[in-house]
Amino acid sequence: MSRAALAHLRRADPVLARVIARVGPFRLRPRADGTHFDHVARAIVYQQLSGAAASTIHGRLTALFGGAPPTPRQLLAAPDDALRGAGLSRQKLGYLKDLAAHAASGAVPFATLHTLDDDAIVAALTRVKGVGRWTAQMFLIFRLGRPNVLPDADLGIQKAVRLAYGLRRLPGPARVQRIGAPWSPWCSVASWYLWRSLD
Prior knowledge:
By secondary structure, this protein is mainly alpha-helical. It has 12 helices and no strands.
């Protein structure tokens, strides 16, 4: 994937070609561990927290279930007090229970999610409380390795675009989409390079 992607991106956008040259080899490897459900549950735990704090809470959460990520039914059956004791806020607890309910009922078909197209996956995941378009896009890129996702509302992407393209102010989603139009069908690869350019 990356060889064809890089050839296209370099040819389509000279500004992005310079970013690619500066960042170096493409190293995105989608997370293959666990289930799709585990991945989204982890994303909810990690929302709006530093990596270290989120990792601690996620570790305590899995410890409640013998060191493994909980299944939807285990999560639904777990007492709220125990989950709160792991460090989950009341809001995140609600989000996780809603996620588990959608999974257990089949309203979000986690076992076959990877067979759907990108738009259908975003539509399915955003039915869950606390899972917005951004979280669904991160799932597409970092779990499924989908090649053509452009998280136009992501602050990191907007900052990187402003710096790379010499814009006076942060671009909104519509402008990111306009600038990123030539990157298709490799927007995920372009996005990865933009994020890395901020390191």
